[in-house]
Amino acid sequence: MQIARASNPAGTTAMWVRDRLDGLWCDEDFADWYPRDGRPGLSPAQLATVCVLQFLLGLSDRQAAEAVRCRIDFKYAMAMELDDPGFHHSVLADFRERLTEGDRADRLLDLALARLEDAGLVRERTTQRTDSTHVLAAVRDLTRLETVTEAVRAALEEVAGTAPHLLDGLVDEEWGSRYGRPVRLGKNPTKPKTRILATGNDAVRLLEHLYRHGVDSVAGPRVQAPRQIVVQNYHRDSAGHLRWRTAETEDGPGLPPSSRAIVSPYDTSARYARHGHIISWKGFSVHLTETCAPDGPNVITDVATTASTTHDSKVLPGIHTRLHRRG
Fold it and tell me: Under DSSP, is residue 302 helix (H, G, I), strand (E, B) or coil?
């Protein structure tokens, strides 16, 4: 049994959570997540436990659902009957969407820590440490020109899906060849100056067209993104001509700082960051705090996700405030 447990960390965790804690959560903890009427659904406490085991083993949604159907340790952790057929894998995605609303994730962490404290695994005034790591945004790595081009394409796709008649008189065959498929220009595209000017003029023309029709104020995020991206990458000279922004400020306005520069029209909150000369990424930072007492297990007590450009020292006051609130 000891050898089997050593080679199966998820099984060990599942049995330990069930035996020592009787589960990290109960269904009553999720009462405000779901409507009071309608047919009975799956146990949210079980789904939350599956998400923990899924993360521990690095499983996809399909693999996690299959593990619930076939693996005894998963069924044991969730107090399921051995012949329970489990659930469809799409349920996990729906559960995670509910989890991202408001402060639900923090509340679940608070509940788990309370049960760990009752079991004597987390104590007051124990030694803790905080460190951060990078989180990649779920977007393609684009050059500046690709970002502008893809922003125009994404806006056209969104308008075409909601109000295609608005594109009459604007989109022609040439626009179709430019923006008909995801852009892939690379760092050294052919005729870069021509592409830069043409894409910028197309973006301005699109924005002006949508403004005349009163669309940009009520449209979705992909229609809103090009306005910011154009301003960050272009400026107008004294003659009113559109010009590409450069890092040098002598010839005109420079580039925005990384803390404001949009790197993808599909996630306008992601940012570019670099630590030293080795690590660079586009996305976010996550700051994890865990106990590190020599006589007990390491338990995560706080998770903070910030922009990738946020310095670690700026996050510590908020972490300390939350730790104090949790006791």
Answer: strand
Are 193 and 217 in the same domain? Answer: yes
User: Could you tell me the pTM of the whole model?
Assistant: 0.78
70 shares its domain with 30 = yes
- CA angle 290/20/293 to nearest 5° reads 30
Same domain, 262 and 312: no
Residues 243 and 299 in one domain: no
Angle at which helices 61-70 and 44-57 pack, to 10 degrees? 110
The single-letter DSSP state of residue 248 is: -
Q: Quick one: 262 and 290 in the same domain?
A: no
Please give the Cα distance from 149 to 178 (Å, whole number). 8
The burial of 218, by beta-carbon neighbours within 10 Å (0-12 exposed, 13-18 middle, 19 or more buried), is given as exposed
Burial class (CB in 10 A: 0-12, 13-18, 19+), 250: exposed
Q: What tens digit of pLDDT does each residue of 53-74 get?
A: 898 888 999 999 999 999 888 8
Q: How far apart are CA 304 and CA 288, in angstroms?
A: 7
List of residues 6+ apart from 128 with CB closer than 8 A: 289, 290, 291, 292, 301, 323
DSSP per position, 118-185: HTTSS-TT--EEEEEEEEE-SS----HHHHHHHHHHHHHHHHHHH-GGGGTTT--HHHHHHHSS----
Indicate if 248 and 288 belong to the same structural domain.
no
The residue among 19 and 199 whose pLDDT is bigger is: 199
What's the structural domain count of the chain?
Answer: 3
Do 303 and 215 lie in one domain? The reply is no
The answer to whether residues 285 and 133 touch, using CB atoms and an 8 Å cutoff, is yes
Domain of residue 194 covers 144-266
Which amino acid, residue 287? H
Residues 5 and 107 both lie in one domain: yes
Cα separation, 86 vs 75, whole angstroms: 9
